[in-house]
């Protein structure tokens, strides 16, 4: 099992929370196999969700032992979806 197929491109539907409609962000190659323009990651997606919820994706949390843990490793939201 796993994501051995289509691992270099993905589609996401994002709606609500003031998201502008009709957005297409990025592009794949002519066969749809790999992202070519505005390549984004799951971290960008979750940073966008956190930002819309009023949660700072750049915050650093602490484990019970005091070890710092970044909420998101690349906390760059997708500006086109913020509205």
Tally of DSSP helical segments: 1
Distance from N terminus to C terminus (CA atoms, Å) equals 37 Å
**Assembly state:** single chain
Q: Report the strand count.
A: 4
Strand percentage: 5-15%
Low-confidence stretches: none
Computed structural class: alpha+beta
H/E element string?
EEHEE
Which strand order does the major sheet show?
Answer: 1-2
The average pLDDT score comes to 89
Based on CA atoms alone, the radius of gyration comes out at: 15 Å
Shape: flat
Share of helical residues = 10-25%
Main beta sheet, described?
Answer: 2 strands, antiparallel
Fold and architecture overview:
The chain contains one helix and four strands, in the order ββαββ. The protein has one helix at residues 42-52, and strands at residues 27-28, 35-37, 60-62, 68-70. It has a two-stranded antiparallel sheet with strand order 1-2.
Summarize the structure.
This protein has one helix at residues 42-52, and strands at residues 27-28, 35-37, 60-62, 68-70. By secondary structure, the protein is of the alpha+beta class.
Note the topology.
Elements: E1 27-28, E2 35-37, H1 42-52, E3 60-62, E4 68-70
Antiparallel strand pairs: 1-2, 3-4
Could you list some keywords that capture this structure?
83 residues; alpha+beta; two-stranded antiparallel sheet; two-stranded antiparallel ribbon; 1 helix; flat
